[in-house]
Amino acid sequence: MKHGKRMLNNQSGSVVLMAVFLVFFISVLMITLELMRLSDIEIISNHIEDMQTYYCAEAGIEYEIRRIRNANANPATRAANVACPTTTRQNDCSDNRGSVNTGWTYRIQDKSFKADPNYTYCNYEIFTSIGCKGSFGAGGCSGQFARSVQAIIRRTNQSTNLRYIQVIRWREL
């Protein structure tokens, strides 16, 4: 009897050791799962901000198309501008009232040209819009996210109305 009781006393420390290993293993497993969850959240938030930047660049092109449609569409006023200028504009991606500051900005470059020398106005335009999380500096977008969209449009001469616009190509750069 004494011999069996002594064997049980010698093994009583192994239960504590197994419990410590079990707690350590569960802790490592929980930390690993939490790190995986946090990296998934970061990937998703980066994807959302990247898509918002893309939509801001698209908004720049949509704004320019609307600006052309609302502008004076008289061919005589277009004929005075035969040089077909290249202009660059920059706006915030916000609502029309300017009451919402989203933190995104777009810069759009408008290259006008005549595809047919018989035209008296610049009938083709290439819009290149860059959406940026943040603002633009001398080196381009100062933020982490920047996306570019390009649209080639053609104005068709529907009698004297140049407001009819045909989008020939719309693509992401």
In short:
With 173 residues, this protein is α+β, with helices and mostly antiparallel strands.
Give an account of the 3D structure.
The protein has 173 residues and is an alpha+beta fold. It has one domain (36-172). It has 3 helices and 7 strands. Strands 1-2-3-6-7 form a 5-stranded antiparallel beta sheet. A two-stranded antiparallel ribbon has the order 4-5. The chain starts with a helix and ends with a strand. 18% of the residues are buried. Residues 74-81 have low confidence and may be disordered.
List the helices and strands and how they pair.
Elements: H1 2-10, H2 12-70, H3 75-79, E1 86-92, E2 104-113, E3 124-133, E4 136-137, E5 140-141, E6 146-155, E7 165-172
Antiparallel strand pairs: 1-2, 2-3, 3-6, 4-5, 6-7
Characteristics of this structure?
173 residues, 3 helices
Average pLDDT over all residues:
77
Annotation, overall tally of beta strands: 7
- What fraction of the residues are assigned to beta strands by DSSP? 25-35%
Strand order of the largest sheet: 1-2-3-6-7
Domains counted in the coordinates: how many? Answer: 1
Poorly predicted ranges (pLDDT <50, ≥5 residues)? 74-81
| Number of contiguous helices | 3
- Written as H for each helix and E for each strand, in order along the chain, the element string is HHHEEEEEEE
Shape: rod-shaped
Helix and strand composition category: alpha+beta
* Radius of gyration, CA atoms, in whole angstroms: 32 Å
* N→C terminal distance: 85 Å
Percent helix: 40-55%
Described by strand count, sense and barrel closure, the largest sheet is: 5 strands, antiparallel
